[in-house]
Amino acid sequence: MKRKLYLLAGFMAITTLLFGWVDVQAWVDGETGQPGAYGTWISLIPPLVAIGLALITREVILSLFAGIWIGALFLVSFNPFDGTARSLDILIDALVNADHIAIIVFSLLLGGMVGVMSRGGGTQGIVDQLSKFATTRKKGQLFSWFSAFFIFFDDYANTLIRGNALRPMTDRLNISREKLAYIVDSTAAPLAVSAVITTWIGFEITQIQNALSGLAAQTTDAALATQLQAGADNAFIIFLHSIPYLFYPILALAFVVMTIVMRKEFGPMLTAERRAYSGGGVIRPGSTPATDTNLETMQPIEGKPKRWINAALPVISVIVVALYGLYTTGASALAEGESGLTNIIGNADPFAALLWASFTGCAVAIGLVVFQKVLTLNQALESWVGGMQSMLMAVIILILAWGLGGVTQEIGTGTYLASLLEDNLPLALLPGLVFFIAAVTAFSTGTSWGTMAILFPVVVPLAVAMGAGIGFAGGEHYSILLGSVSSVMAGAVFGDHCSPISDTTVLSSMSSACDLIDHVRTQLPYALVIAGVAIVVGEIPAAFEFIHPIWGILAGLVILWFILKTFGRDPEVMPEKVTQD
Description:
By secondary structure, this protein is an all-alpha fold. It is built from 27 helices and no strands. Helix 9 (177-194) packs antiparallel against helix 23, helix 9 (177-194) crosses helix 24 (503-511) and helix 25 (516-543) crosses helix 26 (549-567).
């Protein structure tokens, strides 16, 4: 630990000394007042520093703060004292964001609910019931994968509910926390981005619609303006047509279940699964899980009944109230003439719905155990507070990740990456390049929605200007427009999966009680392999309009199967047994 602290302290000291030699005035634009690093390659340094240090030292909190501090130096002309003060201001700004507060409160309430469920024996009751069906590691993992489809409507709810609910079962079956976090993370966002009725749909359609409407207003060609406005009016149809081009999310969903059915792993995940199966622990020795599940206030009381209903009802109430909240907030926000379930969910306020749901879950959990006299009211409240306390580490990491995202926005990291998309490249290369830029942007900024907000206004007009989608459905190079639209979404999800500063990555490790960096290290090789296959058999062929995207997905499945078959190993077979065979 001391060695890691010395490394971080030395890095920050050297950075200060190096920056001391720079002409700080050259780093501030006199006209705009923006730092000279704004929108240049230098704006990549803060996120890369944070991510690199986190992967090297495994000290997430200090690494994230180092990235924020470097970015703050850019904003204050390299004065280390002002940079430290600005870093704290950035963290406060990240915390007071209304949506961020909603996520934190939702996470804390859900943690409190889990605390009551655990203390009241409900979680153990669920484990006892599931043990009758999930009798093997394979069945347990398949159940974990399949459960994603019950909470497909929101990625935050998906990760937090499933990770907390499934963890006791997977622990009993000696499934590593890394594998649980991977299953949870790699099914939540891919479902949310590709399903028709999710909290993402309104945002995605609005981005497409605004980009086309803005382009229509700017063009002087009346015929083209009419076509563009028609495309904007049918943004939902464009989104539906783009779904088959979401190669990475679709293949990611499939790859999870392939590793389970084929019982094959490779890379760090293989090591983690062998450790868990052989009795070495579901977490790596010396790791720091994002959630502390060993608090005394979360342990069942001896001699009290352990009823599964005390865990099932709170979880069901969360799902039901969340769906009800999405429907009511969406219905009240519909514009005149709008109707349909998709529009309702698209216009919903997911944060309000999730807050109502988590609060209801807490009330149901406490009410059940107190009414049945499993816990006294004081014991239930202590467990509720203890459950929230277990989330503290993850909340700190979330705030730091958001702070780093705020820094990247202030110094123009996303602006620089978006500027790499120029209109002087072959049209067929656009979807692949967009996927790459979206992935790097999401990886660097830690937000898939932020990535889409940055790139959609750039990518859609650029694709149309280069000749893609003129006339839209049935028009020339329509598939390239669809490929470009889907590449923004798919690349954002891929970058999100790879980044330790992504909120969904943090939430997945938090709900699974897994070390954040261990989760990133084990998931990263899988995500990279899937992305490489998606580009080769999906993005490129579909852009050149060689084949229908469905054939690309089928080819991707075959290639991924071959990779697992060739390079994967059964984690339940130890290396010495392989040698003997």
